[in-house]
Amino acid sequence: MAVKLIGAKLRKMSKMIKNNLDIMPENAVLYFDNDWCAQCYSETNVVKEFAQIVGDAVHFYEINVNEKPKLATKFAVWSAPSIVLIKNGHKVDQFNKFLDLNQFKTLFDYYFSALKSKEVKEHAR
């Protein structure tokens, strides 16, 4: 499967795949990777770990650019790994490089601090 929902509801993901992301998720992290990228392998671990910390505050989607090139083009993803941040249904930022866990926490706090659960706020201390 080219698009995987990490730590959130599968129902919403099926709707997104069917509509080719014409209906933007309200708040989400879109993680674009591919099968042969060494940095993607490392970034996947960071994204999955952070998705576990965040829980359902924001949905995380893993999108394989080789299998879903139209989605990559739609979000101007030209390299992997890339992370696209969606807030209030709009793309607010994009990072086309490896981010470590601390960088990811900083970005998440900047864009989604109001959405964070109590557990995330405590983990950030």
TrEMBL record:
All copies of the Thioredoxin domain together span 26-103
The UniProt entry's GO CC annotations, sorted and at most eight, read: cytoplasm
Show the coiled coil region(s): none
Q: Which GO terms describe its molecular function?
A: protein-disulfide reductase activity
Keywords assigned:
Redox-active center
Q: Which family does it belong to?
A: Belongs to the thioredoxin family.
Name this polypeptide is given: Thiol reductase thioredoxin
Q: Which organism is it from?
A: Lactobacillus helveticus
